[in-house]
Amino acid sequence: MTDPTDFYQDMKQKGYLTEVRRFVPGYDEMVNLVASKVIEISPFQAVDLGMGVGNIAELILCASADTYLTGIEQSEAMARFAQKKLEPFPNRSKIQIQNLQEGLNERKYSVAYSNLVLHNIDQNEKINLLTEIKRSLLPKGQFIWGDLVSFPFGMHNPIVAYRHLNAWIQGADAGFVKEDLYKELFEDSKLSVRETIKLCRTVGFKDPRVIWKNTAGTTAVFQMSV
Ligand SMILES: C[S@@+](CC[C@H](N)C(=O)[O-])C[C@H]1O[C@@H](n2cnc3c(N)ncnc32)[C@H](O)[C@@H]1O
Q1: Beta-carbon neighbour count of residue 24 at 10 Å?
Q2: Candidates 74, 78, 126, 219: which one to mutate for ligand 1, based on the most atoms within 8 Å of Cβ?
Q3: What is the DSSP string of 100-161?
């Protein structure tokens, strides 16, 4: 299996935000939606699960003056970028370099959010992690989950292939297109919208629902409470 740390180290060298915009149609709209949902809640304690280069955390910290934000990220390369973005907020943020699958600590949050991360985690581990996320939330806490979603009826592979072709046409490196295509087809553990909602209910989240989908339906953002 691709080592995710190396994978993102490679992507970082090519410019993470430039690359992700090529591979994920509607990336900026998705990020702004996730950030604006968190800002609307104006949480006292928020956690970004798989914070990447810290772009969502930065939007939240700029707009929500009462929020203390913890960012969890396993890739040191990505976390170094995030550290720079969080420099203006030394008293309201911290980064934990950690694999989410090791579990969350005892800190409680009013909002947990995660964007484009959980599809990297296989089904059984995903159940454990979602249970852990639920446990880490305060009463009435909210979880906002943005991710790639899969398609039923044999449509998944052609749609993923089309998205990668489109990234290549936009200038993505051919080697990286190939590597990411392989990862999405054979290694990732994506769920459909329906499967996501069912899983969140099974774990015990209340009212899991879709709050945003990109026009092609390849990504969605879900919101739920404890
Ligand atoms: C596609 S990026 C998304 C980054 C950011 N959330 C965004 O929306 O742009 C996935 C990020 O999740 C991190 N990641 C993936 N699996 C992880 C895990 N098990 N624990 C911690 N971080 C993880 C990767 O290192 C990477 O920075």
Answers
A1: 20
A2: 74
A3: GGG---S--EEEEEEES-GGGS-HHHHHHHHHHHHHTEEEEEEEEEEEEB--TTTTHHHHHH
What pLDDT digit, counting tens, does each position of 6-42 carry?
555 555 555 889 999 999 999 999 999 999 999 999 9
Of 225 and 9, the one with more pLDDT: 225
Is residue 1 scored above 80 in pLDDT? no
pLDDT recorded at residue 34: 98
Tally of structural domains, the chain: 1
CATH of the domain at 194: 3.40.50.150
Q: For the full predicted model, state whether its pTM sits above 0.85.
A: yes
Q: What is the DSSP letter of 225?
A: E
Q: Ligand 1: distance of its center to the CA of 48 in Å?
A: 10
Contact 208, 197 (CB under 8 A): yes
User: Residue 154 sits in which domain range?
Assistant: 4-225
